[in-house]
Amino acid sequence: MRITISGPPGSGKTTVCGLLAERLDLPAVVFGRLFREMAEEKGMTLADFGSLAEQDPSIDETIDRRILDIARDTDSIILESRLSAQMLVRHGIPAFKVYLDADPLVRAARVGRREDEDLQQAAEAIVRRQASEAKRYLQYYGIDLYDLSVYDMVVDTADKTPDQIVDEIVDRIGVQP
Known about the structure:
CATH superfamily: P-loop containing nucleotide triphosphate hydrolases
Mean pLDDT: 90
Oligomer: single chain
Number of domains: 1
Largest sheet: 5 strands, parallel
Radius of gyration: 16 Å
Number of strands: 5
CATH class: Alpha Beta
Distance between the termini: 12 Å
Helix content: 55-70%
Structural class: alpha/beta
CATH architecture: 3-Layer(aba) Sandwich
Order of helices and strands: EHEHHHEHEHHEH
Number of helices: 8
């Protein structure tokens, strides 16, 4: 079974993806890590690299090609990325598609802890990052990140532990680990 995990920064995607992969004994691919690595290779912040990606479609195209290649080659995998659900739907690749979300302040607090930033810095970075991604994905692919109709399951992660979220997903897909 292919599973996609999507959502905005700080929604818990990477944590849930890792726990779900362990629970279901499936490989997981986290594409946000690739974007971060590409930014580091260029000596850029995520925000600056996001701005560059607004001018250079090859950055997103590289990541998105990898999503599709991996999905086509692997029947049982978890793919974590902002566009994995939309890209698989567009290309007729079946998957169970999960969208995680939380209140922006909750997400900013999580990102702030992860990035060692205060709440204000993290909130501003999230707003910039989301605006950059929304602009790029609409411009490059005609994808509206705020359209959740492609998802099989939408989970508000604000008041749930990662394990509770994984329990909900496992219950919904009906797979016994």
